[in-house]
Amino acid sequence: MRYRSIEKIFALIVLLSSGVYIYNVRVMSRRCNAGILRCNFALWLKEKTLFYERIQRSHADVMSLDATVATAAGTTAGTTRAGTTAGTTRAGTTRAGTTARAAGTRARAAGMRAGGSLPWDPDLREDEKLAAKEWLLARKKYNISFDKDDDYFRESNALADNCSASLRRVVGRKPLLQRVFDFNVPVLLRKGHFSPEEFDRLSKYRTPYGWKGMNMSDVEDAVDMLSHPECREMFTHRLQDGGGGGGGGRDAEKCVRCAVVGNGGILNGSMMGEEIDSHDYVFRVNGAITAGFERDVGNRTSFYFFSTNTMKNSMRAYRKFGFVHPPWSKETRYVFVPCGHQDYYMVTAAFRRALVNKGPDKKDKPWKYFGSDDVDRKFKMLHPDFLRYLKNNFLPSTRLQSKFKDIYRPSTGGIALLTALHTCDQVSAYGFITSTYKHFPDHYYDQKQKLVFYANHDLNFERILWKMLRKSQVMTLFQGKPPKKF
């Protein structure tokens, strides 16, 4: 009788969800037709359909996650109070205890089906637990397990851990984060990573996750250019021979503090510029405008992250705000996110001080964007395996199960932030999406444009990830002033 009641309740939930779903479709359609809301209706409808199809599975996942949290928190107390071993039922065991153990069994079974038991730490704070639960639930909804793709080149990347407050120590204390982070996947591509065997392996994956469709000699030419010690290491102070740039000469035993600056409107009026510039290194991306906004965003740029396409798009879109070329300074190093073949052609031409010799940027002049000095040492390129690992472990998305699967990738800002989390000891993020994004413009230098969600990124999923990492004390995230209506 009890099970029939549960079935009726769940059927009612599904029915109500269906009604809300149909209503939302009609309302969204009306708004789109009226031109009120900027949206990709086909994408929205596809995602809602996927969600509706999985409502039963998601419902079971929530129950499993809740049961796992309850089991982790109550195992010790329950065992001591009952005086029994796990899984033993006595006459004095309450109905609640029996139900809890049954729920725990279902949770463990669900965890095994998902690729292993869920690694809850009983010492997690409640807010941290809820943030991790939200991110895990999003992953489970997308049906992607941690170990689905493990085809990565790995090398020992054990840095001297002399920073007592290093985020790596935080990761080492938390089972969930241990499963997500893999510090042995190389961050930067360098000479020595290329071989015919590696080319064959990575030719299975499209850019930016591999070299599918590329000519072997073009890849080899680009990788061979990345031979200078500064091209192979993120930070110059970790090089034995020192080197130029803003980080040279720093104590290698000191905590490396990094500021990663997104371009979000939350930074307008923030007065965070001095704090940002006080870090050892400052990461920026795409339309990184500092002139006129120094009080809010600072003026230093240690690393500029971009793809050839995003850089040129930013120059076209934000020229009216003063972005005519990427940041230029003695400190600045340029980090390619190789999203297309043209990035390999561009980096080869930049090193050779020559015109781009093929592709959509043929006859382009790299020195227009990066200057002509120190070209042998100021370029870096992210490894395709590292980018695929970031996508698989941190930011899988429902886009991967839609018609947009071939254009989806984490945002350039998201890639820069995750790169910092794999290379720095302490990371502070500014200008990234938070739950209050509707109260701020898209960019700090444009007070009119609202944030637009495009099909090639999943900014809402990134928001959930940043929240989880902040709650887990892996990084800090600028939250902005109390929001006002935008």
Automatic annotation (TrEMBL):
- Gene Ontology cellular component list: Golgi membrane
Record flagged with keyword Transmembrane: yes
Membrane topology, as annotated, equals: Single-pass type II membrane protein
Q: Which domain of life is it from?
A: Eukaryota
List the transmembrane segments: none
- Principal location listed in the UniProt entry: Golgi
**Major enzyme class:** transferase
One Pfam family it belongs to? Glyco_transf_29
Q: Which reaction does it catalyse?
A: a beta-D-galactosyl-(1->3)-N-acetyl-alpha-D-galactosaminyl derivative + CMP-N-acetyl-beta-neuraminate = a beta-D-galactosyl-(1->3)-[N-acetyl-alpha-neuraminyl-(2->6)]-N-acetyl-alpha-D-galactosaminyl derivative + CMP + H(+); a 3-O-[N-acetyl-alpha-D-galactosaminyl]-L-threonyl-[protein] + CMP-N-acetyl-beta-neuraminate = a 3-O-[N-acetyl-alpha-neuraminosyl-(2->6)-N-acetyl-alpha-D-galactosaminyl]-L-threonyl-[protein] + CMP + H(+); a 3-O-[N-acetyl-alpha-neuraminyl-(2->3)-beta-D-galactosyl-(1->3)-N-acetyl-alpha-D-galactosaminyl]-L-threonyl-[protein] + CMP-N-acetyl-beta-neuraminate = a 3-O-{alpha-Neu5Ac-(2->3)-beta-D-Gal-(1->3)-[alpha-Neu5Ac-(2->6)]-alpha-D-GalNAc}-L-threonyl-[protein] + CMP + H(+)
Residue span of region Disordered: 79-105
Q: In which pathway does it act?
A: Protein modification; protein glycosylation
What EC identifiers does the entry list? Answer: 2.4.3.3
InterPro entries cross-referenced by the UniProt entry: Glyco_trans_29 (IPR001675), GT29-like_sf (IPR038578)
Keywords of the record, alphabetical order, are:
Disulfide bond, Glycoprotein, Glycosyltransferase, Golgi apparatus, Membrane, Signal-anchor, Transferase, Transmembrane, Transmembrane helix
Protein's cellular compartments:
Golgi apparatus membrane
Q: Which Gene Ontology terms cover its molecular function? A: alpha-N-acetylgalactosaminide alpha-2,6-sialyltransferase activity
The entry assigns this protein to a family as follows:
Belongs to the glycosyltransferase 29 family.
Q: What is this protein called?
A: alpha-N-acetylgalactosaminide alpha-2,6-sialyltransferase
Organism (species): Petromyzon marinus
The gene name on file is LOC116951588
